[in-house]
Specification:
alpha+beta; two-stranded antiparallel sheet; 2 helices; single chain; four-stranded mixed β-sheet
């Protein structure tokens, strides 16, 4: 099985088939999830010092923090899945 990767900004890639959800970091519950993931060492910061605009929840329990809008990442995932279906 080939690993499908999706670009989440600044040269960072995540495994597309492991993504459970893409969230906005603005709500209090998501902020608590980020805080807990940082304490547990399960947060992966892919923002390169920029503002976190999307939180990607992986099926491994890890959170990937990205500086791209959730809609942008979701669009890239959808586009990639559409291309894969055409093959």
């Amino acid at each position: 099985m080939r690993a499908e990767l999706v670009h989440v900004g600044f040269g960072s890639l995540v495994a597309a088939n492991r993504v459970l959800a893409i969230l906005s970091p603005d709500s209090a519950p998501v902020k608590r999830m980020i805080q807990k993931a940082r304490q547990d060492g399960a947060a992966i910061d892919a923002t390169y010092g920029r503002k976190t605009k999307a939180v990607i929840v992986m099926d491994t329990g890890q959170l990937v923090l990205a500086a791209l809008q959730p809609e942008t990442i979701a669009g890239r995932l959808a586009q990639q899945r559409g291309e894969r279906d055409d093959e």
